[in-house]
Amino acid sequence: MTLEHHRVVITAAGRDFGRTLALRFASLGAEVFLSARTLDAAERVREEIRAQGVDADRVHAFACELTDPASVREFAAAVAARTGHIDVLLNNGSRYQHGTDLLSASDEDVVDTLASGATGTVLATKAFLPLLLASAKPDIVTMVSGCGESGHHRSEAHDAFYAAKSAQAGFTDILSRRLRDRGVRVISLYPPDFDNHDPLSEAWENAPRTAKDPLTAQSLVNCVLFAIGQPRDCFIKSFHFEQV
User: Fold this and answer.
1) What InterPro entries does the database record attribute to this sequence (predicted)?
2) 7-240 has which CATH code?
3) Residue ranges in the chain modelled with pLDDT below 70
4) pLDDT tens for residues 194-215?
């Protein structure tokens, strides 16, 4: 699949799976608009992408603090100053909080975990919706988590993380119904813990991917590409995965 006609916004692209998404989408030809909490983090990924031979005018870096409404608005405005539409919004931003004991996290940790995952997803989607509606092929993709599934209990994540992911699940569920008539597909992924191999390393091509192995970032990226590559009558609402 080639994406040279796609303009893609990726939140929390400075590290981990956000960086993976940025590298892979750019390698397939998409024009990418990357955000991270700090501009330095976003710029580092931008330079990694440029080092792979991508033209400078096809990759853009921005600072965005998803817990700050003004910062989210500024990010969207900066993207709008460069393009009249975007085709894909990849909601990847969400702070992880570890710990099975509710008392193990500070109040500040709880607030930040909920704000980055739940509030940040709503704010980013709201801010970029006008640019998505200007596209002929708009897709909103949200990285939720198995923790957002009803009855899920196998993760070592903190209760606040479960709460944030459940909020994302509720938001994307209703959004999918309400935006369908406007041609916007809302796609959610609910992965368990997965192996995020560096796309610039040999492990990306050589990682074991059998039924006995954990889910890989490669497969998650392929799910996203599959969903956005379908004809516009095909609305794939969510991907759910078995956990090893």
Assistant:
1) NAD(P)-bd_dom_sf, SDR_fam
2) 3.40.50.720
3) none
4) 999 999 999 999 999 999 999 9
